[in-house]
Write a structure and sequence with these properties.
flat; single chain
Length: about 100
C-alpha cells in the first residue's frame, strides 16, 4: 500500500517536472526539470520493486541514478565553460 502511495506521489512530481521541462524559460531550468524527471522515474521504479518484492530491479535503479549523476556533471560543466569543446582546443582557437 505504501509503495502505491509513493509511486502516485512520484507520478505527480513527474507530471509537474514535465510541465517545467516544456515551459522552462532557460536551458538550465529544462536541465533541472529533466533531472527531476529521472529521479522521479527512479523513485517509481524503486516503489515498483518494493511492491513486487524484487530486489533485482534496484540494481537497474542504481545504474539509472549513477548515469544521471554523470550526465548532470557533464552538462553543468559545459554550462560553466559555455562551450562543448575541451579547454585546450578552445584556448588554441582564441590565440591565448
Amino acid at each position: 500500500m505504501s509503495a502505491l502511495l509513493i509511486a502516485a506521489a512520484a507520478l505527480v512530481g513527474l507530471l509537474l517536472s514535465l510541465v517545467r521541462l516544456l515551459s522552462g524559460p532557460t536551458l538550465s531550468d529544462r536541465v533541472l526539470a529533466l533531472n527531476a524527471m529521472v529521479l522521479n522515474a527512479a523513485l517509481i521504479a524503486g516503489a515498483a520493486a518494493l511492491a513486487l518484492r524484487r530486489a533485482d530491479i534496484l540494481e537497474g535503479v542504481a545504474m539509472l541514478l549513477l548515469a544521471a549523476l554523470v550526465v548532470n556533471v557533464a552538462v553543468l560543466k559545459a554550462f560553466a565553460a559555455r562551450s562543448f569543446q575541451p579547454a585546450l582546443a578552445r584556448s588554441a582557437e582564441d590565440g591565448a
